[in-house]
Amino acid sequence: MRKVVLTGAAGFLGYHLAVQLLKEGCVVIGLDNLSTGQKDNIKKLKRSERFLFIQGDAASPMVMDLPELQRADEIYHLASPASPKFYQSHPLETIEVNTRGTFHMLELCRRNKAKLLYTSTSEAYGDPAVHPQSETYRGNVNTWGPRACYDEAKRLGETYCYEYFTKFGVPVKVARIFNTYSAGLRNDDGRVISNFVTQALTGQDITVYGDGSQTRSFCYVDDTVRGLMLMMRESKADGEILNIGNPEEYTILEVARKVKQVSGSESRIVYQDLPKDDPMQRRPDITKARQVLGWSPLVPLEEGLKRTIQAYSQLLRGKRQGEL
């Protein structure tokens, strides 16, 4: 029975990953400081007797001495705010968990001869001058701006991983994750899909920043989780960086219109100023993930939106009934 440590277990992606690990029969030790994660996610995970939750911060050096984290076989280091709304509200904490927190998890792996998967981000490419983005592209980044606390912290986290792989032989894998979505995203998360779906279902104006011509690629959470688990399992991924995302590319305006169409919403689409340093295009080249893992996403955007909208609708109906 594998013992897995999962930081960021209360977050959107952490919760979905924990569910799948438990289904595989793993013992899962979830670590989260609950700064942006949801307590309800932990409550649901605790229904399994093989899940143990520890409220703590991966950036604290004390985590390395926690007895529950010792003798782990695998560590998934997901802990970090991922939405601009949250990481810009907690910039120093975001830097710490992706740098010192990554160091702590790597050191635990070195001591326990465990494997580590670090979730980096497509934000490592900045506002890319190369399209689509492959893992060899070094990025077009700004170290002096509101997104740098996340982008640059993730890049330094990758450097820690490189050093531990080359110096100590720790089997490290780095996943650069592109936009992941499903109904599990907080509806106050501030990211594109959660914003659009919540606005459409509640009759609010759907807010598009800029003229909506900037592009993104959206990967349904089931596909992202499957990619991460394949990476952890595959020894060929040791010491490698892999893009995990859906190569289908859409403009933000196209996504807003799709959400309106699928939800049957009569919301208006309105426009606001584009935030500073918002990338104009983003699309992964997943050739390497296909070759190393045999992985590619299975859920197209329209199907993922249908699932997401249906789940959000049920959630909103439940809230309204609770208010009556």
From TrEMBL:
<keyword id="KW-0325">Glycoprotein</keyword>
<keyword id="KW-0472">Membrane</keyword>
<dbReference type="GO" id="GO:0005737">
    <property type="term" value="C:cytoplasm"/>
</dbReference>
<keyword id="KW-0520">NAD</keyword>
<dbReference type="InterPro" id="IPR036291">
    <property type="entry name" value="NAD(P)-bd_dom_sf"/>
</dbReference>
<dbReference type="GO" id="GO:0042732">
    <property type="term" value="P:D-xylose metabolic process"/>
</dbReference>
<keyword id="KW-1133">Transmembrane helix</keyword>
<keyword id="KW-0812">Transmembrane</keyword>
<dbReference type="GO" id="GO:0070403">
    <property type="term" value="F:NAD+ binding"/>
</dbReference>
<dbReference type="InterPro" id="IPR044516">
    <property type="entry name" value="UXS-like"/>
</dbReference>
<protein>
    <submittedName>
        <fullName>SDR family oxidoreductase</fullName>
    </submittedName>
</protein>
<keyword id="KW-0735">Signal-anchor</keyword>
<dbReference type="GO" id="GO:0048040">
    <property type="term" value="F:UDP-glucuronate decarboxylase activity"/>
</dbReference>
<dbReference type="Pfam" id="PF01370">
    <property type="entry name" value="Epimerase"/>
</dbReference>
<keyword id="KW-0456">Lyase</keyword>
<keyword id="KW-0333">Golgi apparatus</keyword>
<feature type="domain" description="NAD-dependent epimerase/dehydratase">
    <location>
        <begin position="4"/>
        <end position="245"/>
    </location>
</feature>
<dbReference type="InterPro" id="IPR001509">
    <property type="entry name" value="Epimerase_deHydtase"/>
</dbReference>
<keyword id="KW-0210">Decarboxylase</keyword>
